[in-house]
Structure formats: C-alpha cells, structure tokens
Amino acid sequence: MDEKLRAGVLGATGMVGQRFVAMLENHPWFEVTTLAASPRSAGKTYAQAVDGRWKMETPIPEAVKDLKILDVSEVEKVAAQVDFVFSAVSMSKDKIKAIEEAYAKTETPVVSNNSAHRWTPDVPMVVPEINPEHFKVIDYQRKRLGTKRGFIAVKPNCSIQSYAPALSAWLKFEPYEVIASTYQAISGAGKNFDDWPEMKGNIIPFISGEEEKSEKEPLKIWGQLDEAKGEIVPATSPVITSQCIRVPILYGHTATVFVKFKQNPTKEELVAALESYQGLPQSLNLPSTPKQFIQYLSEDDRPQVAKDVNFENGMGISIGRLRKDSVYDWKFVGLSHNTARGAAGGGVLSAELLTAQGYITKK
C-alpha cells in the first residue's frame, strides 16, 4: 500500500481502545492519526489521559503519546480527520448504536468491537477466517443509511472465539447440539487485578449477557445472506447451551465443549480438519493474519493460558483434550486471547480484509 490509511480509535482510553492503539503501532497499512474518548479526556494528550491506567504490556507508542484526544461525540470533527475508525466506546447500547451510525453517515467506515449492532440484520458480524462473505451485506446497509462509503461492521463476542472456530472447521460433520462453558479472563470486563482485587483467588459464576451471546452469536456467523431481504439470516443449528464464568486470569478465555454430530467423525478426521482449516486472510496474507489459525495440542494438560494464550501473537486458537464422551459424541477444550483475537486484533484483521476487498479506502 503506497499511502497508509488514517485510522481513528473511538474509546481510545479504555482497555480495548488501548489494545487497538498498541496493535496498530507500526502497522503497514494503517496509521493512527486521531484518538477520541469521553469529554473528561478531551483536550488532554493521550499520555496524560492514560497516565496511571495504561494496561498493555508494551509502552505507549511514541507516535500517539502527544496526540490530543478529541471528544468522541463531536462526530463531524473526528470524522474529518480519518479514513475510517475502530470503535471501542463505553456507553449504553442505544447510545453506541446512534453514535456508530452517526459516524457511518459521515461516510466513515466503522469497525466496531461493541455488541450494540451485532444483531442489526444488515450489519456483518465477522470472524475473517469463517464468514468473510457476510461483508456483502454492507451494500444493503449503505442503501439503508444513504451512504456511499460509510458503514458499520462488527466482530463477535470475545468468548465464542475459543470454540466457534473449531465448530466451524467441523461443520461438514454436522454438529447439531453443543454445550459450551466458558471461563473468562478479567480483562474481558476491561479490568486488571489492580482494578478488581476481589477477583484474586475468586470465581464469579455470572457474567451479564454472556450466555445469550455465547449461544446465539455463532448462529449469525454461520448464517446466510438473504439478498431479497438484504440481511444476514442466522443458522438454526447447532443448538448451543452455555454457562459463562469469570475466573482470576488476566488474559485468555477457555472453553470446555461437548458436541453431538449427525456424522460419525473419527478423532483423526476432527484433528485434521482443525489443523488444515484456513480462511481468506491466510490466502491473502493479510498483515495480522495468523499463519496457523487453529493448532491442536495433543498433551493431556494443554491448552494452558500460561503456555498457549499468545499463540500466533494472540491471533491463533488452541484446541486440546479432544476425546470421546459418554453422553455426547466428543468433548474438547479451547483457548483464545480475549483482547487480541477476541477484541482489538479481530477488529484489525477485519479492517485489513475490508481494505483488501475495497470497502475501506482513502477519503
């Protein structure tokens, strides 16, 4: 790419916003030129705004330290300075819907980490390796919004990335019933142990809204574009039931999963399907693409957060403990990095694919 696209980050001071900023440092296609956040941060430099609450393992990128933060609600002002934006704003769902549509209507593409638009029928919710064809619904969304280049695309919930990729690799074996229990890191709530000391040595068996997302969002990912309606129609199978638990881990969502199949795959067939599963990002060799999307670990005690969460820079999925079950057909354990693949990294990879396909261009 001859000239980098100007990227903005909405909600740049929060944990996911910080992860966007960190992951975009030295990106070959995108340059962070604009940071926006709440009015209380507006006017400060980025370094001032995140002083004492920078949560990333790497230092604040030098290129953004002195950028003045804009008020995210000044939509026209922010939009005038960017080619597209990543959205990680922290607001009510109604306010998020409104502000993301407002940005799209300034002809600014929005790649969102938020859940507010995941069930808007003409908004694609994409894992780039699984359902990139859903980006075609953008054409219908633009007609509704009255835009030529502005649109909203979202990524799914962070926790489903620990098991939905495996099930996607196995769709040819016709899974029809799934139990998925997730054990989710505290960074998924935008926290670390300094913010949330009561999580040390603790487990909380409830995460608001997560079980519905875990059960329903994979079905939209596996759905089909209905061109007559101009929307994505979710799949109806497999049926998923879920429990979601918060555990004292900083990064990494783990899932224990039980599956029934209409076909009768062998373990060898299931493992081969995982290891060979590739998507459009791999064939296009996009900058943030993991070369190996899914790895299978044969050791009895893997995957482990401590050893495997950063597989492929946090953009790969780790699967292990695949074995026959006495009630269901097969069971396994999955692991994904919740703020890399599950949040900002998934958004960056989506933006790369949208750029490669011509949906994001220079203004």
From TrEMBL:
<dbReference type="Pfam" id="PF02774">
    <property type="entry name" value="Semialdhyde_dhC"/>
</dbReference>
<comment type="similarity">
    <text>Belongs to the aspartate-semialdehyde dehydrogenase family.</text>
</comment>
<feature type="domain" description="Semialdehyde dehydrogenase NAD-binding">
    <location>
        <begin position="6"/>
        <end position="138"/>
    </location>
</feature>
<dbReference type="GO" id="GO:0050661">
    <property type="term" value="F:NADP binding"/>
</dbReference>
<feature type="active site" description="Acyl-thioester intermediate">
    <location>
        <position position="158"/>
    </location>
</feature>
<keyword id="KW-0521">NADP</keyword>
<dbReference type="InterPro" id="IPR036291">
    <property type="entry name" value="NAD(P)-bd_dom_sf"/>
</dbReference>
<dbReference type="GO" id="GO:0046983">
    <property type="term" value="F:protein dimerization activity"/>
</dbReference>
<dbReference type="Pfam" id="PF01118">
    <property type="entry name" value="Semialdhyde_dh"/>
</dbReference>
<dbReference type="GO" id="GO:0009086">
    <property type="term" value="P:methionine biosynthetic process"/>
</dbReference>
<dbReference type="GO" id="GO:0004073">
    <property type="term" value="F:aspartate-semialdehyde dehydrogenase activity"/>
</dbReference>
<dbReference type="GO" id="GO:0051287">
    <property type="term" value="F:NAD binding"/>
</dbReference>
<dbReference type="InterPro" id="IPR000534">
    <property type="entry name" value="Semialdehyde_DH_NAD-bd"/>
</dbReference>
<dbReference type="InterPro" id="IPR012280">
    <property type="entry name" value="Semialdhyde_DH_dimer_dom"/>
</dbReference>
<keyword id="KW-0560">Oxidoreductase</keyword>
<feature type="active site" description="Proton acceptor">
    <location>
        <position position="253"/>
    </location>
</feature>
<dbReference type="GO" id="GO:0009088">
    <property type="term" value="P:threonine biosynthetic process"/>
</dbReference>
<dbReference type="InterPro" id="IPR005676">
    <property type="entry name" value="Asp_semi-ald_DH_pep-lack"/>
</dbReference>
<dbReference type="InterPro" id="IPR051823">
    <property type="entry name" value="ASADH-related"/>
</dbReference>
<protein>
    <submittedName>
        <fullName>Aspartate-semialdehyde dehydrogenase</fullName>
    </submittedName>
</protein>
